[in-house]
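Quick one:
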Amino acid sequence: MLILRGMRIDILSVVPELLESPLNHSIVKRARDKELAEIHVHNIREYGLGRYRQVDDYSFGGDAGMVMMIEPVYNLISKLKRERDYDEVIYTSPDGEILSQGLANELSLKGNIIILCGHYKGIDHRIREHLITKEISVGDYVLSGGEIPAAIITDAIVRLIPGVLGDEQSALSDSFQDGLLAPPVYTRPAEFNGWKVPDVLLSGDPKKISQWQEVQAIERTRALRPALLNE
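Output:
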């Protein structure tokens, strides 16, 4: 019998409001409602310094832009670690490992994860040297902060937890699970505006359908993402 287990994700942010919508709707909300995923968003400003809860400062060396300070982040992560063990402490960084389906699969097997959202010009590098276990990028571009990447990482992980999706096979047939793009999908009606669903999908022959899907997946990958094919 499959035993469903929960995952805990703690997200650290200076703008936690940006995470309210993506974490409280759709698949992620379903996972939380089923208690398969426990997600907590922490406001780093609550651990800021002084009267004004300062979390950023000028960088040594005179570079432009503000830098997230080490003390508020250290204090928050230390508090969380005193309460439980964590498998990964992830930093959302443009120079981190590119998020892939394989990496999402790997992280979905973890128990407790911290995700630190970058902001401003970046974070004090000592945080990356001494507190972070993995850095992840969602692409080769720069965003205003790490909240959107954190939401993407969370969604990619949580949907893979057994019991979250209504159809367990659905996640296994997603694009990139086998290194290929997914084949085309269709639904009713079988004909609309003169546009027809391929006959093979209406044949009721599982073997022929599987063969067609495999060919389509390879052809679409070759046309749209040829770098994924080792040819």
